[in-house]
Design a protein that fits this description.
Helices cover about 45% and strands about 15% of the residues. Among the domains are: about 90-260, 2-Layer Sandwich (Uridine Diphospho-n-acetylenolpyruvylglucosamine Reductase, domain 3); about 260-375, Alpha-Beta Plaits (2-Layer Sandwich), CATH 3.30.70.2190; about 530-595, no CATH class; about 695-935, no CATH class. The strands form five sheets. The protein has a seven-stranded antiparallel β-sheet, sandwiched between helices. Helix 43 links the parallel strand 24 (about 905) and strand 25 (about 925). It contains 44 helices and 25 strands. It is of the alpha/beta class and about 950 residues long. The termini are far apart. The radius of gyration is 29 Å and the shape is globular.
């Protein structure tokens, strides 16, 4: 394989045969596992063309993978895996807001985020929308909760830019049938021949038309031959749902739909599933936008989360719920819908008071719970068992009978406590089975169950075995069974027409092995409790700062599982060599992964434990010493920063870094790789003890060490005091703050004992400084605010009562709640925001943006704003992490700021500001300085 790859005309950095890369790309959100021979990261269409030519020459199969959220095994291979998350991220919204043109690697949710202010959205809305990509959505013909059939990719695509297996780039927005006939005559003629043969068979016409009256992603989109006459349009629509087996979708233009601003959301709990399903059609007829069904076991898996937003929830055996939403352009129409739903509710038998709300936060929480239901159900499975998610569709009228039959099927095969949930508007139900595949009997049971499921869904109820998750390997053995011999033979012709060399994702959709769905099944070896419940859905990956450098949270967990399974005694040298760097060193441990994880797994906690296990005795002793004498550590760090800043001026920044590189070469354990040219100086030591203070102000150790910005005359501490004074507020800044720290500096490195000791000392002192919790406490770095807000589990038992009396507020909250609406403001022209991972975890980003809107005429939040990866000291030790994490955001910001000399750049964490300054060459500073600029 290595010799063949040497002949592939791609840069070597785009090709990896690193064993860690191969192992961590062997799994995705499905229940299969295939270890690829190589992982390749193409960045241009020419790269794809070169790949296709190479595949044909060397007879190598390739498979495309984007977000890895697909569920049927279509994005895995034991050949060459093509990773599409490096680049492919541009998209443009049409001037009339009727369409969006997007590269294949754009995360779909980012497009909707951008469209929201224009009242628009794309059609498909899968639960994974904040993780999956446009290319994946189109390749799988994904739909979702409100899209149904009418708004799926097949019906909303306006054009595709495709690279065919021959290497031809075919753009349906520019090229016509003559172009196709000229450069792909066999494909052109073959498509017309298939259409002619289909139209000559009435039975086949009726079969195809009938199959697409409900959701169906089994096999190729044969409806293209009935819906279109032009071979270009047939080709375009065959690509949709083809799962990477017919060509590469580089770019797509999709139609847009109204996203009305006023939502009315409700949750209705019924005595039984049958009772709930009997009311689906009645509610659908009221014009509801979305209608989700959750059976008893589904509700049980999210009961605690639901009770946070719906305290009246009462659950007992066999209860089921319907979650619905209406969308209206104005209050009057919303009120009409409210009256309409209330008028029919009086005839419903409900087990508790219905929840109906227009509150955005409540609505957001309800839909977040629903979108995370897969992972929540996964969390309930026993350790070391594999989950199998199925996705079926029944004709809507059959639901009240079909779902109970499905429950009976679970009972028959002893799949107890299996939750059923799904899209009530479409009759599209999901359910999750669990098996321990270490037991051969489990495979036999699953095989028999799948055969019985086919009989129930397809034979008895004339439904489809896959509604929206694609055929993949999971349903490949059932394509012929569901469609029949004639239709299946047409699919064989389609595959052969497009890909006669069979190098594009072989074995997916078309597979003659009737047991392929039972092979290469995933197992889940037990690992650390922090991450053992992970089902590898991939929702965590999109915001991970190291995703384009080394590993993502999911991949770090996968690596732990595979090491646990395969290398318990001896870890191969190839893994050992890269392990620390990939698994531990380049993880920012910032916990941003937990924001998108439906079951709140913080992979950073796992990595901290791994780092702690590496610590030597003398390191632990040193950390514990400094946790008890923090002012010593602060003194050494202040001295070091001052010295290196001085040497940078003396020798020049580049020469200093040459010296550092030489030292690093001679002494590998030397902690620095490079020094930062724009590093802030230590803050001036100040204190403030006014009479009758309004707040306690605790400057974080980071702002004390690096709070003197080169772009400002004041340090951050001085700026905070001045801002308070100008707002007629008094801050108490104790003179002994250098003795204290929140512990993050120790915790992130794995020194948990030192971290807890430091934290407990600070909490005791904050209680005293705040007059037993009477005064709110301002923290000026979001990472420290976040740590202090959620540290209860790390406190000594005797301190918890004191801690609960403290009111910890971040700088963003201080300005938003106590200053911004109480001062006269002269707006600046431009303000650019960088959201930190900590502010995201605390839910403060909207407050941050609101402050900027009140301080600037033009506020810019980059589409790719994300964790900067500086992570305390990672930016010093592994600067490539910050460079990778900020690459796309920095490009956006530089482009926006070009020619706008009066732009300001703001964040809420000192090290993040340093990281963004270094990545963009533009000075980022605390939000506090913006307020000082705009106060009249």
């Amino acid at each position: 394989m290595t010799n063949d790859l040497d002949k592939l005309p791609l840069l070597s950095r785009k090709i990896s045969q690193n064993l860690i890369d191969l192992l961590t790309n062997s799994r995705d959100a499905s229940f299969y596992s295939y270890i690829p021979e190589a992982v390749i990261k193409p960045e241009t269409e020419q790269d794809i063309i070169n790949l296709f030519l190479w595949c044909k020459r060397f007879k190598k199969p390739i498979t495309f993978r984007a977000a890895g959220t697909s569920l049927s095994g279509q994005a895995l291979t034991d050949g060459v895996l093509i990773d599409l998350l490096n680049g492919w991220i541009s998209f443009d919204i049409s001037k009339d807001f009727t369409s969006v043109t997007s590269d294949c690697g754009v995360i779909a949710g980012k497009i909707n985020d951008k469209l929201k202010k224009y009242g628009k959205k794309i059609g498909p809305d899968p639960a994974s929308i904040n993780s999956c990509t446009i290319g994946g959505i189109i390749a799988n013909n994904s739909s979702g909760m409100s899209s149904g059939v009418a708004r799926n990719p097949y019906h909303t695509i306006q054009s595709l830019r495709i690279i065919l297996p021959s290497g031809l780039v075919f753009d349906t927005s520019k090229h016509d049938s003559l172009y196709l006939k000229k450069f792909e005559p066999a494909l052109f003629d073959g498509l017309l021949e298939i259409k002619k043969n289909i139209l000559s068979e009435n039975t086949l016409i009726n079969k195809i038309a009938h199959k697409y009256q409900i959701k169906n992603t089994i096999g190729y989109s044969l409806n293209a031959f009935l819906d279109f006459d032009d071979p270009c349009e047939i080709l375009e629509h065959l690509m949709i749902g083809s799962e990477g087996t017919l060509g590469f979708i580089s770019r797509a233009t999709m139609g847009l739909f109204d996203d009305f601003p006023i939502k009315l959301t409700g949750l209705l709990v019924f005595p039984s599933s049958i009772e709930a399903l009997n009311h689906v059609e009645m509610i659908k007829d009221t014009g509801v936008e979305a209608l989700e069904f959750l059976d008893y076991f589904s509700l049980l898996s999210v009961e605690s989360k639901l009770k946070e937003v719906y305290p009246n929830l009462i659950l007992s055996d066999d209860n089921a719920a319907l979650l619905f939403e209406y969308a209206s352009p104005n209050t009057e129409e919303s009120e009409t819908k409210f009256e309409l739903i209330n008028s029919i509710l009086k005839d419903f038998s409900l087990v508790c008071q219905p929840l109906i709300t227009r509150d955005y936060l409540l609505q957001s929480k309800l839909w977040t719970i629903r979108k995370g239901l897969l992972a929540s159900l996964g969390k309930t499975k026993e350790s070391e068992t594999t989950f199998i998610l199925e996705d079926i569709c029944f004709p809507l009228k059959s639901l009240p009978n079909a779902v109970p039959d499905l429950h009976n099927l679970f009972t028959r095969f002893n799949y107890n406590k299996t939750g059923v949930y799904g899209h009530g508007l479409d009759g599209n139900m999901h359910f999750m089975l669990t098996e321990n595949f270490n037991n051969p009997e489990s495979v036999r049971r699953l095989s028999a169950f799948m055969d019985a499921l086919f009989e129930l869904v397809v034979v008895k109820y004339d439904g489809s075995l896959k509604a929206e998750h694609g055929t993949g390997r999971n349903m490949a053995p059932f394509v012929k069974k569901e469609w029949g011999e004639d239709a299946y033979n047409i699919m064989l012709q389609i595959k052969n027409l497009f890909d006669p060399h069979n190098f594009l994702n072989p074995g997916v959709i078309i597979n003659e092995d009737e047991k392929i769905h039972l092979k290469n099944l995933k197992d889940y070896p037990k690992i650390e409790t922090d991450a053992d419940a992970c089902i590898e859905c991939g929702f965590c990956e999109s915001h991970c700062p190291s995703k384009n450098l080394t590993l993502t949270p999911r991949k770090r967990i996968v690596l732990q599982r595979l090491i646990s399974k395969n290398y318990k005694d001896i870890i191969p040298d190839e893994i050992k060599y890269f392990y620390d760097y990939y698994e531990k060193d380049t993880c920012a441990v910032d916990g941003i992964c937990s924001v998108n994880c439906p079951i709140d797994i913080n992979t950073g906690d796992l990595v901290k434990k791994l780092r702690r296990n590496d610590k030597k005795n003398y390191e632990l002793k040193a950390a514990n010493f400094f946790s008890n004498h923090f002012s010593y550590l602060e003194f050494f760090l202040r001295t070091g920063i001052k010295s290196l800043n001085f040497l940078s001026k003396l020798f020049g920044f580049e020469n200093l870094n040459k010296i550092i590189k030489l030292i690093k070469k001679k002494i590998p354990a030397f902690p620095l790789q490079q020094w930062r040219n724009n590093l802030n100086a230590p803050s001036t030591r100040i204190s403030s003890k006014p009479d009758n203070p309004d707040f306690v102000y605790f400057p974080s150790c980071v702002s004390r060490l690096m709070g003197k910005y080169k772009s400002e005359n004041l340090s951050l501490s001085e700026a905070m005091i001045l801002l308070a004074e100008k707002s007629n507020l008094k801050l108490f800044l104790p003179n002994s703050v250098s003795d204290y720290c929140c512990g993050t500096i120790f915790e992130s490195k794995g020194f948990s004992e030192a971290a807890n000791n430091t934290l407990n000392k600070l909490i005791k002192q904050l209680y005293l400084w705040s007059d037993s919790g009477r005064l709110p406490i301002i923290i000026d770095s979001s990472s420290c605010s976040q740590n202090l807000k959620f540290c209860e589990n790390h406190l000594d038992h005797g301190l918890i009562d004191q801690y609960k009396k403290l009111k910890i507020i971040d700088t963003i909250e201080f300005i938003y709640e106590y200053i911004i609406d109480k001062i006269p403001i002269n707006k600046v022209n431009y303000a650019v925001a960088h959201h930190t991972c900590s502010s995201a975890r605390m839910g403060l980003n909207h407050k941050f943006e609101s402050i900027l809107q009140k301080c600037a005429f033009n506020v810019y939040v980059p589409d790719n704003t994300n964790c900067c990866g500086f992570a305390g000291d990672r930016g010093f030790l592994f600067p490539e992490l910050t460079a990778s994490a900020t690459k796309d955001e920095a490009r956006e910001v530089i482009e926006f700021a070009s020619g706008k000399k009066d732009s300001g750049f703001y964040s809420s964490n000192t090290t993040c500001e340093i990281g963004m300054t270094n990545s963009t060459g533009l000075f980022y500073e605390s939000l506090v300085f913006l307020l000082l600029k705009v106060i009249k």
